[in-house]
């Protein structure tokens, strides 16, 4: 088994970008202050950086998975300019009341508060679960982490880098934001 590393699991809307409701285009995307610097710092410190995001707007028919993937590609390009990268994006397009039948599920296993996206990442990557951290902005994010055995912290807005530093969660070897 490869050497295990800690992972930083990040919710997307409300943690990496402003939650403006079903954000799916670059024109509507705005980074949270300190988000790009946080990703780059955790990359420098050798952490695996992963996004775990509920995307029920797909199941609700508001936008397509292709539109979401295009947005994630733009995020990656913008992060690269700041010296950062997301190692993988995990998304949950299902919802119990999705009008699109292909995305309707009574209790979607990937959709937070279920831990499916985190559990999938733990299978896909050489992650040290005990050293890992999830940052979310909703109780459902924290519940998913708890159910997956990953510590979590609730981000209430503001500057993400400053918040993680104030909570003593900034990684060793990352330098400042």
Describe the 3D structure.
This protein has 177 residues and is an alpha/beta fold. The chain has one domain (8-166): HAD superfamily/HAD-like (Rossmann fold). It is 32% helix and 14% strand. It has a 5-stranded parallel sheet with strand order 3-2-1-4-5. The longest helix is centred in the middle third of the chain and has 17 residues, at 65-81. The mean pLDDT is 96.
Topology record:
Elements: E1 7-10, H1 35-44, E2 48-54, H2 56-59, H3 65-81, E3 88-92, H4 116-124, E4 133-136, H5 139-148, E5 151-154, H6 160-166
Parallel strand pairs: 1-2, 1-4, 2-3, 4-5
How would you name the oligomeric state of the polypeptide chains in this document?
A: single chain
Order of helices and strands: EHEHHEHEHEH
* The CATH C-level class name: Alpha Beta
Biggest sheet, open or closed, and with what strands and sense? 5 strands, parallel
The CATH H-level superfamily is: HAD superfamily/HAD-like
Number of domains: 1
CATH topology: Rossmann fold
As a percent range, the share of helical residues equals 25-40%
In the predicted model, the low-confidence regions spanning at least 5 consecutive residues are: none
**Structural class of the secondary structure composition?**
alpha/beta
The total of helices stands at: 6
Kindly provide the radius of gyration, computed on alpha-carbon positions and rounded to a whole number of angstroms.
Answer: 15 Å
Distance between the termini: 32 Å
Q: Give the strand order, joined by hyphens, for the main sheet.
A: 3-2-1-4-5
């Amino acid at each position: 088994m490869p050497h295990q590393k800690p992972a930083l699991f990040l919710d997307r809307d409300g943690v990496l970008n402003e939650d403006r409701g079903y954000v799916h285009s670059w024109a509507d995307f705005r980074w949270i202050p300190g988000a790009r610097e946080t990703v780059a710092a955790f990359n420098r410190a050798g952490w695996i950086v992963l996004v775990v995001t509920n995307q029920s707007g797909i199941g609700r028919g508001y936008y397509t998975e292709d539109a979401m993937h295009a947005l994630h590609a733009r995020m990656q390009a913008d992060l690269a300019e700041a010296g950062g990268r997301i190692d993988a994006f995990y998304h949950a397009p299902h919802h119990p009341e999705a009008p699109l039948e292909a995305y309707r599920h009574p209790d979607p296993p990937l959709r937070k508060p279920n831990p499916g996206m985190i559990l999938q990442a733990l299978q896909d990557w050489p992650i040290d679960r005990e050293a890992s951290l999830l940052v979310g902005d909703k109780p459902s994010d924290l519940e998913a982490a708890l159910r997956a055995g990953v510590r979590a912290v609730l981000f209430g807005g503001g500057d993400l880098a400053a918040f993680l530093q104030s909570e003593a969660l900034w990684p060793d070897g990352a330098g400042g934001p």
